[in-house]
Each structure stands twice: as C-alpha cells, then as structure tokens.
Design a protein that fits this description.
312 residues, D-Maltodextrin-Binding Protein, domain 2, 2 domains, ten-stranded mixed β-sheet, two-stranded parallel sheet, 38% helix, globular
Length: 312
C-alpha cells in the first residue's frame, strides 16, 4: 500500500471519528468497547509506518472502531499520556519509573504490552563509499571528537561530517544518548529536520551526511514507500569492530548482533477494557504479529510456521 493510500485511509478514519464524536457523543459521552468507539491514539513518529499498518488492519476488521492518530516525537508523545491528551500510545520504550509512579499515584490502571523490536539505523549517501562503522567511531562522531570524513577514511574528500536526526525530542536521540553516549551532549555538527522522511531526503542530497532513522521507515520490502526511501540511501553496518559490523535486519535483531536494537511497546492508561485493550490484543495476535514481521521488524511473538509433510 502506498503512502498516499495510508494518508487517504487515515484521513477517512479521522473524519469519521470526528463526525461520530460531534453527533453522537454530547455531554453523556459513550464508553468505548474493545471493538467500537472513538479514542485518541498517540504514536511515536519513529514507528509511524507500523502504527499505520496496524491501525488500518484493525479498523478494517472492526468498522465501528475509530482510532484518532496523533503522531509526535517521543518526548511529546509521553507528555500527551501524562497530561491525559491520550490514554493509549505506541512508544519505543516502556514508561520510566517516574512515569509509572505518576500514574500509580493517580490510581490509574496501567498496561504495557511488548509488540516488537525495532532498531536505530544509520544511513549514508549512495555516493559515500564509507558505510561500515564501529560503535566507537559513531560515538566519536556524535560527540564531535571526529569531525572529518578523512578521520574515518584517510583520503576521503567529503569534508566535514554532518549528522542529521529527525527531531530534537526524538526517541532516536534519546536512545543513543542512553546507550552510546553516556548522556553526554551531541556535537554541534548534529542537527534535526523534524521527520524520518526528511532525514532520508537530506542524506540523499548531501554526500557528507550521516542520517539517523528508525528501521521501521525502510524495513518493509513489500512497501512501495519504504523501498522508495531505501533506494535514496545506503544502510550502514555497525559493530563492535569493522569485522563484526552488520546492518539492522530481522535476524540481526533476533540474534542481537546489531548493537542498536530497541523495543516497541503499546501503553494503555486506565483500568477499563476499552478500545485500547482491543487494539493491543489485535496487535499481539497472530495477524498483528505478521504485520510486524512484514514491516521488517522482529515480532514479540513470532507467528508459527506450520509445514505439513505427506508420506506416501
């Protein structure tokens, strides 16, 4: 399904949800059920393609269900859950101890369901011959200790390295800060351009750039949009050493041979089993997990493959 198809369907979902909420839910607001009703749904922009696939499939199965998607960088998405702008969301992390304590102090119910494993991917321009890095090289680049391509590859004429992220509040930045940088600040050579799509477009146009994106944006081999983005860049391999470097893919996520793997969690606030419960159950079902696998990510509960052998 193309990106335009996603947008058309999601716009239809939003319009239907708004119409229902205006006409059928005055002050006596109707309660949603696991398969019907209307709820806002916050999505970390890093995993937007997966969220769209799951949402479209869920609504196709349950036409009375209306999920109003609100796409935001992780920092804003978490705040939307805290300030009750949404009670359901897809994030690339579990809630922190402080966030969990906040909801417990309010006597809110809280459910967190592991759905998948994603990865923070590094991408370079197609004309850049350097696409294999060690973790230490990337750490030095992100901290500004190595600023020239010639420091990575002697003889390179690409000049200064420019690192581009999707958003200042992105989960990509937060993840690398936590796991690679020891929470040290990024170099001034790092900057943000708002979305993962914009990162890929920037790298496509600038040979000296390294982009940081979610694997979910370039992992679905059956997606015209994903493959179009994939053709614009080269996916970098990363490892503890150059000899062990690998690109992020499902096998690397399963075996933990790629160093920057992370989890995808569905977060539901509230004790009552409503539409969020229904969506979480669907996403964790065999159908939902097949959608995760199709997106190029690692399913939390891989679907069984049954092979029937007939003996004559």
């Amino acid at each position: 399904m193309t990106k335009m198809s996603y947008k058309a369907i999601l716009c239809s979902i939003i319009a239907s949800a708004m119409l229902i909420s205006c006409n059928n839910q005055p002050k006596g607001e109707e309660l949603d059920t696991p398969t019907s009703g209307t709820i806002p749904f916050v999505i970390d922009e890093v995993i937007q393609p997966l969220a769209e696939e799951l949402t479209i499939s869920f609504v196709a199965r349950y036409p009375k269900a209306h999920l109003i998607p609100r796409v935001a960088p992780e920092k804003d998405a978490a705040l939307m859950l805290i300030n009750d702008s949404a009670r359901n969301g897809l994030l690339t992390r579990k809630l922190t101890k402080e966030e969990v304590a906040f909801f417990e102090s309010k006597k809110f119910g809280l459910e967190q369901v592991l759905l998948a494993s994603d990865a923070v991917a590094f991408v370079v321009n197609r004309n850049n011959t350097d696409s294999v890095f060690t973790k230490d090289q990337l750490r030095r680049i992100l901290l500004g200790q190595d600023t020239l391509w010639s420091q990575i590859s002697p003889g390179s004429t690409l000049g200064r390295i420019r690192v581009v992220f999707d958003n200042p509040g992105s989960s990509n930045i937060r993840y690398l800060s936590d796991t690679l940088l020891g929470k040290q600040p990024l170099s001034k050579s790092c900057f943000a351009v708002q979305t993962n799509q914009a990162v890929i477009e920037y790298v496509n146009e600038h040979p000296e750039a390294i982009g940081v994106v979610g694997l979910n944006w370039i992992g679905d081999k059956d997606s015209e949009a994903d493959m179009s983005r994939r053709k614009m860049i080269v996916l970098a391999a990363v490892g503890d050493s150059l000899n062990t470097a690998t690109t992020p893919h499902q096998s690397a996520l399963a075996l933990h041979t790629y160093p920057f793997c992370r989890e995808v969690w569905f977060v539901k606030i509230g004790k009552r089993p409503g539409l969020g419960t229904g969506f979480a159950s669907f996403a964790y079902s065999e159908v939902g997990q097949l959608i995760v696998q199709k997106a190029g990510l690692l399913a939390a509960k891989p679907a069984e493959r049954r092979i029937e052998l007939k003996v004559n």
